[in-house]
Amino acid sequence: MKYHLLVVDGMALLFRAFFATAVQRNFMINSQGVPTNAVQGYLKHLLTAVDHVQPTHLAICWDMGSVTFRNEMYEGYKANRQAPPVEMAPQFDLAKDVTTELGILNIGVKGFEADDCIGTLCQELKQDEDLVLTVLTGDRDLLQIVDDKVSVLLLQKGIGNYFHYTRAAYVDEFQLEPKQLIDVKALMGDPSDGYPGVKGIGEKTAYKLIRNYETIEGLFANFNQLTPTIQKKLEQDKEMLHLSRKLATIHCNVPLDFYLDQAEWQLDLNKILPLIEGYELKSVRNTLLKLNNTTTQTSLSL
After folding, report:
1. How far is residue 151 CA from its own chain's centroid?
2. Dihedral of the CA atoms 284, 279, 275, 154 (nearest 10)?
3. CA neighbor of 203 nearest in space, from 225, 178, 186, 227
4. What's phi and psi for 257, nearest 5 deg?
5. 104: nearest Cα among 95, 112, 113
6. 3-class secondary structure, 108
7. E strands within 11-124?
């Protein structure tokens, strides 16, 4: 291994960080009156993960607005989601601005989700034998891209806690290949994303069916082996099943203008601390000092 690219789902980190502190209405207002709780939590997650993974390259992927090609496929896609809280609205741009000033590469393409950008990066780069690919996210949908070259660090409760999904770990837990998650979700749907799948087929049944028949095509090829109840449900919602499958699939052909050397990055506290202090991100400063005490030999005059 010569290079290690950590690809980060910026939206997942930002939302997780916001709601972790918004419950107590701890919005961390700065001197300009701008809330910073989401940005501070996002950076704490990010920098802790960098310390954990020790990547040579780093890229952050973002959604670029709420409307994507999936909304054109299905009007109800994510239509059930409320607008972000007013305290979070200004923090989307702030997070990207701070990331840029830290010298970290931001990636986002209008009409696509951060997941699609992450999937595309991994698809394009995994042929490089000298490159290790790790994805950091809180979104289980991204487990579908796990394979022998791509692993996912799935955020757990707290900062710095992850479940590391390699292909072997995923197969061991679910008795399925990661790619089969797409067909599981096609059957069970995803209420958070607003598509129903097949009515009456829940998570347990969806996993059982795909374990037994491998794919949606396998289900219909062995239709007579299914119970009459399952047959009826599939017949009634066949069109939505295939649409849900398309909605669940991460699109790995986003038009990205990306070169690996753009993402080269190292943690340099002497450069980062003044920026963090300039943005009044006090809790991030504390995290950086903690990381410095345990993992770096940087000499600081504070």
Report:
1. 12
2. 40
3. 186
4. -105, 85
5. 95
6. coil
7. 57-61, 105-107
